[in-house]
Amino acid sequence: MNFSVALSAAHDSLPYMLGGVGWTVGLIVGAMLLGLCLGVPLAVAQVYGPKPLRRVVGVWVWLFRGVPILVQLYIFYFGLMSWLSSLPGLGGLGLDSPFTAAVLSLGLTSSAYQSQIFRGAIQSLPAGQLKAARALGMSDRQAIRTIVLPQALRLSIPAWSNEYSILLKDSALAFTIGVVEIMARMRAIASTTHEPVSMSFVAGVIFFFLTWIGVKGLTLLENKVRIAGYTRQGAA
Amino acid sequence: MSESSPILEARGLVKTLGGNRVLENVSLNIGRGRVKVLIGPSGAGKSTLLQCLNLLIPPDSGRVLLEGSEIDARNRRELCSFRQQVGMIFQDFNLFDHLSALDNVRVALMKVRRMSKLDATERAVAELTRVGLADKAALYPANLSGGQKQRVAIARALAMDPKVMLLDEPTSALDPELIGEVLAVIRDLAQGGMTMILATHQISFSAGLADEFIFMERGRIVEQGSPAELLAKGANSRTKAFCAKISELTGEADAEFRQ
Q1: Strands B20-30 and B212-217
Q2: Which CATH number among 2.30.110.10, 1.10.3720.10, 3.40.50.12370, 1.20.1250.20 corresponds to the domain A3-235?
Q3: How much is the pLDDT for A184?
């Protein structure tokens, strides 16, 4: 391998590769938000819900943790979503796009993992605070929203940034159903330039920086919402 | 003394926890402005009784009445409005760790009583001032001492204008040098006419405060009467024997309650 050839190939490929960043970020933001919006209620249901509901959440979590993302991508893209968009009234909404299917399978999988992050955080809070909230006349819904979740979400940020970095790398699988994110572009350009190693290197560097930016950002957020003297075990 | 119209009343409370009968048919009532003190060994059911009284722990059977009307624990709206009127102080404070002292007092005023932020703030500051903590309003629980935390908890309960306060060993988790500041607040409340049921081991303090001592053991009320009566010289009461044992251990001057 000629080093200078590889280097110039990498350099030339950069604009095209960076064009995939938008898709990757779109996948991640969509999937993280979907996972958050589902993960929080799932966690609350699993901790405070009635037994049948807790069981449903348990099945959900096992299902999405147990089925590989690649398998889900195929099921969603070639199966569920193309069937959905064939239904009257649902055509033309873009439901059958590879991007939608990828966000769904990444997001639903993430909802299972995120729910367990939040569940752990909720259960680590001292039970007395919920009691105190009830004693003040708060309904359980009010107490969970104003007392439990603000603390649980703060405690979840470190694990959440871990989830972000995992999901970011999982998102590379979306190339298999045709989302033109970083990985897809890497493969395309490698097959025309015959420089797979340097292209992989470029893709790796881009993924690394996306991870770094996200994790750094979440650390900043963690510090911004930090409460004086607050530790994982509750107040010292 | 007549207690014909009690504020809070419990009839025949029974509670079994983990196969143990924690409350065995306990009844009590308390009239306006009265102070009743629950004493007895650990595991006697004092804490469970207090938490059954505001239905934080639902009793297996028995009834709780506020000003003569029975509370239906299955009716959530009724339950929440009942609890607003019954202030609760816990042994380990249970402050909301993510909220400042001010917000701890303010949050229920805004969320439960739907007060405006301005009104709630004014009220919260007034209550913090009452417990001597106006200058700590901005601090978070982690930066308060145990005694300060308990006083914030008291301010938080008082802000809801409770008709009766239940205090579950409010000084048991405190370092000895911090107990006094909390007892002073409780004494002020009693002198201000607050109706209270207080579980405590601070015998000589509560003897000066209580209209009635209620001695519990193994989930039952074993004895009740005025402190003077139960602790009188020559009285042969369980209460007196128990108090003597406590004061022996803590070195509390028992002369105070032999008066």
Answers
A1: unpaired
A2: 1.10.3720.10
A3: 87
